[in-house]
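Sample 3 of the quickstart, ligand guanosine-5'-triphosphate:
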Amino acid sequence: MGKSTVFNMLTGLNQHVGNWPGKTIEQKTGVVNYKGYKIDLVDLPGTYSLTANSLEERIARNYLLKNRPDAVIIILNAATLEHSLYLLTELINLPIPIVVGLNMMDVAKQQGFQIEENVLSAALGDTPVIPIVASHNQGLNKLLDAAIEVSQHPNQTLSQKYRITPSDYPHQEIQKQITSKIQGKLPAIYPTDWIALKLLEGDSEITSMVKESAPETWKSIEMLLIDHEDTFLDIAGSRYAWIERLVRAAMTNPRKGTISLTDRLDKIATHPFAGLLLLIGISGAVFWLTYTLANPIVYWLGNSIISPLALWSKSALGNAPFWLQGLISDGIINGAGMVLTFLPILFFFFAAMGFLEDIGYLTRAAYVMDRFMHWMGLHGRSFMPLFLGFGCNVPSIMGTRIIEDRRARILTIMLSPLVPCTGRIAVITFLAPAFFGKSALIAVWGLVSLNLVILASLGILTNKFIYKGKRTAFIMEIPLYHVPNPRTIGLFIWNNLVEFTKRAGTIILLVAIVMWWLSNYPGGNIENSILAQFGHQLAPLGHCLGWQDWRITIALLTSFLAKENTISTLSVLYKIEESGNLAANIASSLTMPSRLGFLAIQMLFIPCVATVAAIRKEAGTKWMVINILLLLFISFSAGAIIYWGLTLLGVK
Amino acid sequence: MTNNNRFWQNRFHPRNNPIEPDYNSNIVRLGQLENGQKAKIIDFQGGPGFISRMAILGFIPGTELEMIQNYGRGPIIVSVRGTHVALGRRESWHIRVNKPTS
Ligand SMILES: Nc1nc2c(ncn2[C@@H]2O[C@H](COP(=O)(O)OP(=O)(O)OP(=O)(O)O)[C@@H](O)[C@H]2O)c(=O)[nH]1
Ligand SMILES: [Mg+2]
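Result:
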């Protein structure tokens, strides 16, 4: 564990880092210039073995096999050495030079483990073993030195020196037989004896590959495999037996770790009842914190910086042509600039999220939620990508790669846009005080809960009536809690803020400019503009939902491009002349039921283009279309029900 | 495991391989251990996909496990080879262990 941390330290790039298995879901290349060498460093998803169970593990395995890197740096977690070594027992049978980075030496020390790296190294046929503390940049240069060294003598350092395979486990005879059967019949990129081994281990991808490439011999191979069906336990068993010997030789105090702090914290965090309360409490507190700390700053920025700046630029550009004046002050400053005032909201939100991820809370939350995810035919693992959705739905959809089962993965993808992302949360946080006064925070909680309730109901109904299926096994490593690392969390926040600012400077800015143009031409005033004409066409739709003002409908539609566009569009369309606070101006054109209905639709509307594209990439066009139609239907029904329900109840 | 892997399916299809009742009173299910109890794995009951994932994590017949958390329902946490691993309730019933002496 710590691959991405090492990668970030060495390349200066910003891969997502967090204390739970399955963050990295794609390979990522970075360049390191070191001692005159130009090294292409590739960060891969983590995997426990070369038998791949999920998509992201398959990516890692296929990279190693197909790209044949000059050297592989395998990062072991010194605090859970036995588990980490399993992958190594498989790697040393591949014809690739290896360097071992023994990471988390700080944690191991704290737990009272002492590891003699030279014993490890000797047992591995003099494979370099370098102790490191990735998060504090300790030992990384030595790691690079070793990697350069082994890559230059590929033949010397090859695994030939140490092979667990033939000598150590009982099925080598069969492996040889299978090897000879498939020799020369398969794509040359795979070592043949490795294929034979994976067949014995029951790897599904390899099995179907062999069946396809060598159909004539498959029958006889299958017979052999059936006769030796219990092999994979033997193989894994002999690897672990070897690991145990190794660990006993190289480590004092194995398995005497003091995990007491983790255990004590988990008494609460993973308790079926207390843990659930904690999860709800934490989520509520995050919103409360974001709201109370960030909103005053957001308002201050809007009222004391953006609006005056827009007014000032207008007078400063007094002699400039109308279009230039309007474009700069109304379109750019007031439109896209207004969205930039969301930065404090994002800051606090991502700080909280980064903190929870880095200490290792996420797997605990997934564990507690496992029971409830069963109602949807999913299990705890699906909770982790869904949780990421609070930041942004795109990584959440990509993150579903850690789910092994296709049905569960598709269902999780379909549900994930219902998790309100920071873009939407920022919009409602921005509008809530003006819309709901003192009850603003309750309204924010209510709207977020509405999304989650719909998510759960949809999942349960789908599982019951439409898309039934059997759950696969829930197996998840629970990492030790870590002391939060300010650097990791800081980078996480920084990354997300940069992403957001980029969005504000590109798509949001573009939409603001287009909106300004459409609302000022022809004629220079909004009432005769193209946009107004279009808006009046849409008026009947708005009326059903209680929006007397067509500008609201337009704003909602622009949120398809980026959720924050709702605000930038409204900001352009409600010019600053109308003076006072933007949110207050919007509020004055809506009654209470239509305010709630509007925000509910905003929260449930079709996902933004980036998310739609991610759905298409991960699940295909069919599911993308279904998702769009589904959310269109859900959002408008929810909005209409809320509006008409409250109106009939007489709420004003 | 994909569906086209027929031989695995036949072998591990529930019809051919139902969970047998434990006549031997020295055998219990992992899900029956109480917090803090230790026991050794005897065998698994489940498909090859399940068993191979467990084996990779070091759950191998003979391996000693310690129950960290079991509240009778919902998932459990066990310690295996110095690491904590969460397992679903169903999975905890597909692992048979020897009866702890204490
Ligand atoms: N105490 C300590 N923590 C570390 C060290 N190296 C990494 N971490 C933390 O370990 C966690 C996991 O680090 P990552 O770099 O994301 O792990 P990874 O191997 O890329 O994980 P995946 O991509 O999910 O396979 C993070 O919370 C890091 O801050 C270390 O040397 N000491
Ligand atoms: Mg990573």
